[in-house]
Every structure is written in structure tokens, then in C-alpha cells.
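S.,

Sequence below, as promised.
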Amino acid sequence: MSEHEAEPQGTVREYRTEELADAAGITVRTLRFYRERKLLPPPRREGRIAWYDGHHLARLRTIAALLERGHTLGGIAELTAAFENGRDVNQLGELLGLGEGGGLGWSEETPVRLTPEELADYFEGEVTPENLAASLDLGYLAVDGDEIVHVSRRLLDVSSALVREGVPLAAVLETGRRVREHAEALAGLFTELIEAHVPAEPEHTAGPVDPAGPVAPARPVDPEVLAKAVDRLRPLAKSVVEAELSMAMDRRLRGQ
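The prediction came back faster than expected:
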């Protein structure tokens, strides 16, 4: 362990070249290649030693995530340059495959239109290319003309409040990604519950079932009927989730 691996709390964690490559799960040769392609900002120099920090590690993890999504190194370099040199939001959207409008389709959430400067004001010092790429990847941000659109006023306000409390935006976004997985599972549970018990349309109503006969196939559910039932019962599902989350946090606080 180097002297920089036991930094006092509040100081910047720094890595030598080999340490950064190991933390990012890449080879030193790959790290140097990224430097040559200007995908990473220059390290801090101390004599002949190059020191990297958490921003470099976050950038490497973003590069890996974008490569997994099918982006080329050339495209990632363009994305970084577009944001660092003028924040051309149209170009950013095109580079990440969003296009104008960003495919917004949220029903209950209120989208917020922001200029790049207004977005930076919400998260002062935290609007980095890495965090921008993560937000676009999550679908929190989209592009519409020369504006950035955040898909949810509530998520925007909560995220900025957490950052003001000292939580790094990168950590907020990663937590949001994990919450998304659980939310998708919960939505599936409630949709299946409603689908199993939603009233059938008259043409789908079956006659008496012979107990000795074969098991009747699952009755079809009209998609429009299901959609209306889900929308009608959505507040009940949200109340259950909110109550369970509240009780779960109580249990955590009690150490149970």
C-alpha cells in the first residue's frame, strides 16, 4: 500500500499509473492508450511520477460503460470534447443515440427544461462528462433542440438536495441505477397482481369450469382494460411501497 492509499478523510485519493489501471480493471497499456487518445485529462505530475485521482477512475469506468453500450473510442472522445468545449447538447444527444426529444414518455413526472448553464447551477462542480454520460444512460436527461430536459422535477430536486448534503453526484446516479432495478421488479409485481385479477371483458368471460376437465388456459386480458386498471390502482401500489420503505428504514435505524 502506498502512502497515498491511507489518506486522511477529506483529502483526494490519488493513484499511480499501475494502481489506477488495477482499480479500473484494465492494463497499463490500455490506460496509456486512452491518454494518447485524449480520453483522460492529464495527471498531476510530481517529478517523473504521474498521479491520478477519483475523476480519472470515474472517467475510465464511464468509458467501459459506453464501450459496453456499443460506442466506439472515437465516439467517446467526441462526447468528452463536446461537453468540455462548449457543451453542444445536440451533439451530445446524437453521440449517445438519443436524437431530439430523447424519447420522453413519462406519464406522471413533470419534465424540466434547462440550459447547460442552469444544469451546472443545480450541481455546481459535479456536472462532469462522466456524470452527464451516466445521466443520459439512465434516461434522466434527454435533448430537445438546444435545451437539456430532465425527465422528472422530483428526481432533479432530490438529486440536487443530496449533492448539497455532500453526496457526490456520481454516487447519487449509481444509487438511482440500483433503485431502478428494484423499481422495475416492484412494477412487475403489481402489474402481474392487477393483470391476474382485473375484470375480464364480456367476450372473455368463460362458462362454468368442469373440475374433472383439463385446466383452462389463462384468460386473455384486454391491454386497454389492463392499462386503465393499472393507472387506477397505481396510487395504492405507491402507498404500499412507501409504507414498506418507511418501515424498512425504521428497522435499519433500530439495527434489526
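The CA atoms of residues 244 and 250 lie 10 Å apart.

Coffee later?
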